[in-house]
Amino acid sequence: MSAQARSLILGRRFDQRPLKVEWPMGHTLISGITGSGKSTTMNAIIAQLAAWSCIALFGVDLKLTELAPWNRRFTYVARSHAEADSLVAWVLQIIDYRQDILVGAGLRDWHTGLGPWIVVVIDEAAEFFGLSTHEVNQLIAGGSVDELLADPETKKQISARLSEAKTAKEIRSANLETMARTARALGIRILLATQYPTAAIIGTQVRAQIDYILMHRVDRTEHVDVSLGEGMSKTIPPDSIAHDEPGAFYYKAPSTRPVKAKGPLFTDAQIFERAAATAHLRWDLAHLQAPAELAGAEVAY
Ligand SMILES: Nc1ncnc2c1ncn2[C@@H]1O[C@H](COP(=O)(O)OP(=O)(O)O)[C@@H](O)[C@H]1O
Ligand SMILES: [Mg+2]
Asked: pLDDT at residue 48 above 90?
């Protein structure tokens, strides 16, 4: 393992020292309102991971923009809910394969001699769960859609859509929780971004599986408490990061206090350049799904 030790630079602390984390870090949540710098921070992390041949990347990008530059480096980028559901099914399948590999090898933890690290990037968790912005707002406000709509027909349609979305959300949420819970020992990590770090979006089951937090600017108490932990809004109130500090975030690793840092600013041109330079390191889905090949010592990383 020591031969494979690598560190990721997440940004700079406010005293200018680099903020480093040893890979493999755990599952990670990037939270913050729109414009707070989530995608930029996510891209800075992806840019470093992409350069390592022992990393396979999967992405969910329902906004069709954020992960687009990385298409050629990612094994698969899901652009619709149907594709995202397939992606989750594949990852759950890979988890099964990897469980067999690990048991077969008599090991407790993954190492790259068995296959690459797999990173599943989900940009905007709320959309992944299948809720529209309107529905999300309703859930957050805890209000009823019915009260807002006078027209009975529209009311009926919206109610039906909402309960459908809630069911889909529950299934996806349960899958994500299973994925997060079982994946850690199998070399699979989740990198999740959301502008809605709330109990309604990131359920407690999913939240419990997340080890590392990069909380950018948020404007609600609940967003702080779900991101950094219950009661943390007392010491780090909402708006602790100013409007004019995009890219700034509070970083929290397990059993440590949050520290304030700022992510690097990656331009689109730099991202495209890095993506092109690393495209040849892309892992084929077929390879990740073939345990016999993965288990072979002849695979070089
Ligand atoms: N680390 C940074 N340093 C300086 N400016 C940043 C940084 N991160 C983001 N920004 C600015 O903030 C804008 C929004 O960032 P973005 O990552 O798209 O936010 P989000 O994904 O949270 O909506 C960027 O276009 C950029 O101008
Ligand atoms: Mg974004």
From this structure: yes
> Which of 62-66, 133-137, 186-190, 193-197 is least confident?
133-137
Ligand 1 touching residue 204 (CB < 6 A) = no
Q: Considering only CA atoms, which of 194, 129, 210, 184 is closest in space to residue 162?
A: 129
Fold of 26-287: Rossmann fold (3.40.50)
Neighbours of 115 (CB within 10 A): 28
Rg (CA), the chain: 20
57 CA to centre of ligand 2 in angstroms: 18
- Specify the pLDDT at position 66: 84
**Beta-strand pair 188-194/248-252:** unpaired
Atom of ligand 1 nearest to the CA of 216: 22
136, amino acid identity: V
Q: What is the pLDDT of residues 246-281, one digit of tens each?
A: 999 999 999 999 999 999 998 889 999 999 999 999
> At a CB cut-off of 8 Å and minimum separation 6, what does 165 contact?
130, 131, 132, 135
Probe ligand 1: pick from 14, 40, 127, max atoms within 8 Å of CB? 40
* pLDDT given at position 295: 46
Q: What is the pTM of this model?
A: 0.88
Q: Write down the pLDDT at residue 7.
A: 94
Identify whether 116 is preceded by a cis peptide bond (ω within 30 of 0): no
Extents of the domains making up the chain: 26-287
